[in-house]
UniProtKB/TrEMBL annotation:
Gene3D superfamilies documented for this protein: 2,3-Dihydroxybiphenyl 1,2-Dioxygenase, domain 1
Stretches assigned to the VOC domain: 7-128, 146-264
Pfam families: Glyoxalase
Lineage: Bacteria, Pseudomonadati, Pseudomonadota, Alphaproteobacteria, Sphingomonadales
Organism: Sphingopyxis terrae subsp. ummariensis
Coiled-coil residues: none
Protein name: VOC domain-containing protein
Amino acid sequence: MTNPKGSFIWYELMTGDPDGAARFYGAVVGWTIAGAADPAAPGGVDYRMIGRSDGGNAGGMLALNADMLAGGARPGWLGYLYTPDVDAAVAAITADGGSVHMPATDLPVGRIAMVSDPQGAPFYVMNPVPPPGMEGMTSDVFSVTEAQHVRWNELSTDDPEAAIAFYRRHFGWGQEGAMDMGAMGSYRFLQLGDIGIGAVMPCMPQMPVSAWTYYIGVDDIDRALAAVAAEGGQLLSGPHEIPGGEFSATGLDPQGAAFGLVGPRR
């Protein structure tokens, strides 16, 4: 894999209603999600690929079964961060105050583990196994500019300073630049190399726990928000104009997973 360490290389939607989620994100974003589980998914789980209009994948969707729900899993989006050594990353994260929710596991697609940072925001670490003949592949699920890709990764945390230091230590991220939000604190921008990948902000009253929000690119923010309402989703904030003239918004899908949207106003 040619992505640098610390890249977001996959995004996963956990949902209790895969067919309903497929209809919702199809209308809002334009994705195509398979109508049945991928037969290659290990362990008999219901896992479906999220397809973009350009033929690539935006991520995957995991149907939450009764055992997962009983174990505390809930609808939501999770990001995967690339590391060439999953076991070393897990050991370092736990030694630094993070937690392990799923130990390092080998799957046909690679070695993964689910962890959380010391403030409690969960994510995966992964060292993927590219398909034969594609050893030099690059993940393109994240794009700064393109619709149907995640375009922005936003961490709300109860300790922004500690969170920034944590991701800097373990994934090589930079933090340069900030936007003053007044009483809400600073919105501090994150970089991997020379690419702006997202931001860190203090937890807001409506979101009191540390968590990541992933902003999905759309072709028209007004069309997308109309589809959110029509398809049973809930708008939480926005649309807000952002630097560059585009607009962002956050919401909940009909199954309760939080998401963000970003795109132009046509």
